[in-house]
Amino acid sequence: MQRKIRWGIMGAGAVVQRWIKGAMQLEDIEIKAISSRSTASAKEVADKWNIPFTMTYDEMVECSDIDIVYIAVPHTAHRELALKAMNAGKNVLLEKPATINAEEFQELIACAKLNNVFLMEAVWTRFFPVIQKALSYIENGRIGEVRTIESNFSFRVADNDKSRLTDPLRGGGGLLDTGVYNLHFAHMVYNKVPICMKGMASMDTDACHFQVDEQAAYIGQYDCGELAVMMSGIRTETLHTAYIYGTKGYIVIPVFWKPTELEVVVGAEKERIEIPVLQKVNGVVDEGYQYEISYVNKCIRAGIKESPDIPWNVTLNVLKQMDSLRKDWGLSYPSEKKGGRL
């Protein structure tokens, strides 16, 4: 019987506990340790989910019993921890956005190549069966040539929110938190980079409470005239629905960033498909993280260093699009003023 893939977790926030619920649905994984800036919060998560060890970040990257680390800390700390892990020979799954700008991710690519380790941005949406089904419909011409995509992912935080979502020091704002889903979704569908990206953001005005993009709308135009119309934010609740419009019909995907259903409409014909997330552990409900984790485990077993589904250039291009939008909006983060370094 082959040994399970051994994971270490960096971070102890809400997304980590959601991710662990996905890991628990799989047999080919063993979570060996968790680390966090706060020893108390790491221990709390470890105790809740029966994780054997709590460690410092330095201890984790030096631990020979760990094959790969999952990094889920505030955006501005991604670069530092990923470099630390890869320079110690560890494979890395890095939460979205991989870094706060393209320059930082180029540094990570070079580090991954130098150390011959796996590195992937955790674009979990890509691995949902519903997304696979939608992409197959596009590839086989079910809805004709795709001409327009619409996607919205925005929610509302409180006026007095003090979380990382509203904090420029931690890369706050809608674009890096929810907008990254829109841009990756557009790339999944078109499989190419827009030739132009324009948008507007609401931030730092009399009506806005925070110095980050509270809400934004942006449009990407592609080489054959195709469009991607997108909206993201942290101060306006929207439906999280994506629409893919082709020359013959269209696809509707509710909650497109973690989808379990879609509808295909071609003329008078409608087809609805539902693929629930498999739940194998009583009392533990996974939103769909198991698909991403299973995929990464297969990459590690196969010795793959760069994911063919989320290759480095895709992450880099999405970051460049976000860099361009933030430049137009006049939005930069304090860490970037120090040359992109923490």
In short, what is this structure?
32% of the residues lie in helices and 23% in strands. With 342 residues, the chain is of the alpha/beta class.
Could you characterize what this model shows?
The strands form two sheets. Strands 8-9-10-7-11-12-13-14 form an eight-stranded mixed beta sheet, with helices on one face. A six-stranded parallel beta sheet has the order 3-2-1-4-5-6, sandwiched between helices. The termini are far apart. The radius of gyration is 20 Å and the shape is globular. The protein has nine helices and 14 strands. Helix 1 (14-23) links the parallel strand 1 (5-10) and strand 2 (29-35). It is an alpha/beta fold and 342 residues long. Helix 1 crosses helix 8 (289-302) and helix 4 packs parallel to helix 5 (102-115).
Search tags:
342 residues, alpha/beta, eight-stranded mixed beta sheet, 23% strand
- Please state the overall shape, judged from the principal axes of the Cα atoms: globular
Number of strands: 14
Percent of residues in β-strands: 15-25%
The main sheet orders its strands as: 8-9-10-7-11-12-13-14
Structural class: alpha/beta
How many H/I helices? 9
Largest sheet: 8 strands, mixed
**Rg (C-alpha, Å):** 20 Å
Low-pLDDT segments, ≥5 res: none
Tell me roughly what share of residues is in helical segments.
Answer: 25-40%
Report the order of strands and helices. Answer: EHEHEHEHEHEHEHEEEEEEEHH
Mean of the pLDDT scores? 95
Distance between the termini: 43 Å
